């Protein structure tokens, strides 16, 4: 019984240490390479339509062993027509206390008015993506964290 307790304790320590290392490695966005290419976004989110510009990052959680999870977050700047279609086609709820996880280097610095739509999220991303899209109703910008 004592041997079993020691093995369990060691296993807990290894798991905790690994979790800390993973979180530490990905908590500093300065090490992340930001991208502006549009094709990877359109291929993953085909309902997004035409995009004027984008600024995003992607990476994996996990290490050299065990399962990993792929994440993406960033900004999408759809065409004006696309944004108007999204605004009119879905019910948007203002999220005044919500802010994106990082600021866009191509953002104009305008005051933002973020909103969320469960319908839009279901439309824009397939069910195997976990995360959310938000829309800046004032500036015609989508922010995603999936």
Walk me through this protein's architecture.
There is one protein chain. The chain is of the alpha+beta class and 146 residues long. It has two domains: 1-30; 32-145, no CATH class. 33% of the residues lie in helices and 26% in strands. A seven-stranded antiparallel beta sheet has the order 1-2-3-7-6-5-4, with helices on both faces. Strand 2 and strand 3 form a beta hairpin. Mean pLDDT is 82; it is low at 16-29.
Question: What does the secondary structure layout of this molecule look like, with pairings?
Answer:
Elements: H1 2-26, E1 34-35, H2 39-44, E2 51-61, E3 69-78, H3 80-89, E4 93-94, E5 114-116, H4 118-124, E6 132-136, E7 141-145
**Amino-to-carboxy terminus distance:** 43 Å
Number of structural domains: 2
- Uncertain segments are 16-29
Report the sheet-strand fraction.
25-35%
What is the number of strand segments? 7
Largest sheet: 7 strands, antiparallel
Number of helices: 4
User: What spatial form do the alpha-carbon principal axes imply?
Assistant: elongated
* H/E element order: HEHEEHEEHEE
Instruction: Estimate the helix proportion, in percent.
Output: 25-40%
| Integer average pLDDT | 82
Instruction: List the strand order in the largest sheet.
Output: 1-2-3-7-6-5-4
- Helix-strand category: alpha+beta
Compute the CA-based radius of gyration.
19 Å
């Amino acid at each position: 019984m004592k041997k079993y307790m020691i093995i369990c304790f060691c296993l807990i320590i290894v798991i905790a240490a690994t979790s800390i290392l993973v979180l530490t490695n990905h908590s500093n966005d300065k090490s992340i390479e930001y991208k502006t290419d549009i094709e990877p976004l359109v291929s993953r989110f085909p309902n997004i339509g035409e995009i004027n510009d984008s600024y995003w990052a992607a990476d994996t959680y996990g290490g050299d062993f065990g399962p990993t999870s792929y994440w993406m977050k960033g900004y999408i700047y759809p065409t004006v027509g696309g944004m108007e279609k999204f605004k009119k086609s879905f019910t948007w709820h203002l999220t005044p206390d919500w802010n994106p996880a990082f600021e866009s280097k191509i953002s104009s610095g305008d005051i933002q008015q973020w909103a969320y739509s469960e319908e839009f999220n279901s439309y824009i991303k397939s069910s195997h993506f976990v995360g959310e899209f938000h829309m800046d109703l004032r500036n015609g910008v989508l922010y995603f964290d999936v």
